Amino acid sequence: MSPAGCPHVNGFKVDNWKQNLRVIYQCFVWSGSAETRKRKAKSCICHMCGAHLNRLHSCLSCVFFGCFTKKHIHEHAKNKRHNLGVGEKYSTWEPTKRELELLRHNPKRRKITTNCTIGLRGLINLGNTCFMNCIVQALTHTPLLRDFFLSDRHKCEMQSNSCLVCEMSQLFQEFYSGHRSPHIPFRLLHLVWTHARHLAGYEQQDAHEFLIAALDVLHRHCKDDNGKKANNPNNCNCIIDQIFTGGLQSDVTCQVCHGVSTTIDPFWDISLDLPGSSTPFWPLSPGGDGSTLNGESHLSGATTLTDCLRRFTRPEHLGSSAKIKCSGCHSYQESTKQLTMKKLPIVACFHLKRFEHSAKLRRKIPTYVSFPLELDMTPFMASSKESRMNGQYQQSVDVFNNDNKYSLFAVVNHQGTLESGHYTTFIRQHKDQWFKCDDAVITKASIKDVLDSEGYLLFYHKQFLEYE
């Protein structure tokens, strides 16, 4: 490209566009006096709906202001053929036919290099808020969530300044704006305190509890904009449920008549027990024979994520003290219960239960759990239940079945004790580029750093997505 800029832009320019830009800048950008600030406040409104927010844009061909969110600036550009404008933060316009033709002939318009750090930005700790910062880092690097918020697809029907989805949308804009200085998430913290009062205050909170509370509030504030039938057990088509909701199948089998009662419940995450907790941990490693599953070796004797998932989905005898009324026997009988995955979410979050709270015990469980970069959930599906024999899983996995395969993209860690600790996050950029996010400080990390970390919350993304 020449120093004069893109030659194709000249076809859209009007003769006086520089003068128009200068007037806009003098009157509405640089407001040095009280008079100009007052004039700006009165004049900077959408000429179609009267709103002074919604990412206001100005036409460079005439005196017109239009909001981007409600696409009033788009309507003006289309009707008047005024194709150039400036916005409060962006100059983002829907492409014209000519622009689309240019893009078709030049498909590679931007090169993302291996050392690109788009979207990486530190977060200021506002007083024991590392629990919030680490989850924000994980959410802002969730690919489909990022695409949703950067495409202005949220249509808010709540009162201004009270919608968490609007704040998250603004947060994504801040993260991907190119600014490198740490962001101060004070508005997000205020909304969390407003909508999840059990998290209010400056005490250290649990990152897992914050994640579930944030997803719950986002789910309640989201609106189904596309009107399509939900394809998840929650019967909701908001972006949160599209990405995070899976279906957990519970099969209760009567020990007398062997009748099975099945229920399916939605879940946003899977909480897994660890060895060393007061809950007995079933030794599941395949007898030290060197076999592997999901690329995890059992030779070292370390507990693996697969071990935890096996324990989670094993049949459990409920005992005589927890008899359930059988619909076949019409009486209370002993039974077994088994959990499996009926439907997998796009993003699978695994919560390793490191904090133990009981009447006699409050402690952190530091047991190291090995977790893989790539995870195959096929052995834990309800459809794979018939292939299990006496609680043992078949080691042969169909290498051509990629529907249930996941890739790791974020790991939340907790350092310290139950009373005094700190949260950090490992984030994946591109394929094998990892960064450690420690509040305002972001540093390069290796894959070994990630896999050697203790692990508290593990975020996996499906490798292949279905679409309609």
UniProtKB/TrEMBL annotation:
<feature type="domain" description="UBP-type">
    <location>
        <begin position="4"/>
        <end position="123"/>
    </location>
</feature>
<keyword id="KW-0805">Transcription regulation</keyword>
<dbReference type="InterPro" id="IPR050185">
    <property type="entry name" value="Ub_carboxyl-term_hydrolase"/>
</dbReference>
<dbReference type="InterPro" id="IPR013083">
    <property type="entry name" value="Znf_RING/FYVE/PHD"/>
</dbReference>
<keyword id="KW-0645">Protease</keyword>
<feature type="domain" description="USP">
    <location>
        <begin position="121"/>
        <end position="463"/>
    </location>
</feature>
<keyword id="KW-0862">Zinc</keyword>
<dbReference type="Pfam" id="PF00443">
    <property type="entry name" value="UCH"/>
</dbReference>
<keyword id="KW-0378">Hydrolase</keyword>
<comment type="similarity">
    <text>Belongs to the peptidase C19 family. UBP8 subfamily.</text>
</comment>
<keyword id="KW-0788">Thiol protease</keyword>
<dbReference type="InterPro" id="IPR028889">
    <property type="entry name" value="USP"/>
</dbReference>
<keyword id="KW-0804">Transcription</keyword>
<keyword id="KW-0539">Nucleus</keyword>
<keyword id="KW-0863">Zinc-finger</keyword>
<keyword id="KW-0479">Metal-binding</keyword>
<dbReference type="InterPro" id="IPR001394">
    <property type="entry name" value="Peptidase_C19_UCH"/>
</dbReference>
<dbReference type="GO" id="GO:0008270">
    <property type="term" value="F:zinc ion binding"/>
</dbReference>
<dbReference type="GO" id="GO:0004843">
    <property type="term" value="F:cysteine-type deubiquitinase activity"/>
</dbReference>
<dbReference type="GO" id="GO:0016579">
    <property type="term" value="P:protein deubiquitination"/>
</dbReference>
<dbReference type="InterPro" id="IPR001607">
    <property type="entry name" value="Znf_UBP"/>
</dbReference>
<dbReference type="InterPro" id="IPR038765">
    <property type="entry name" value="Papain-like_cys_pep_sf"/>
</dbReference>
<dbReference type="GO" id="GO:0006508">
    <property type="term" value="P:proteolysis"/>
</dbReference>
<protein>
    <recommendedName>
        <fullName>Ubiquitin carboxyl-terminal hydrolase</fullName>
        <ecNumber>3.4.19.12</ecNumber>
    </recommendedName>
</protein>
<keyword id="KW-0833">Ubl conjugation pathway</keyword>
<dbReference type="InterPro" id="IPR018200">
    <property type="entry name" value="USP_CS"/>
</dbReference>
<dbReference type="Pfam" id="PF02148">
    <property type="entry name" value="zf-UBP"/>
</dbReference>
<dbReference type="GO" id="GO:0005634">
    <property type="term" value="C:nucleus"/>
</dbReference>
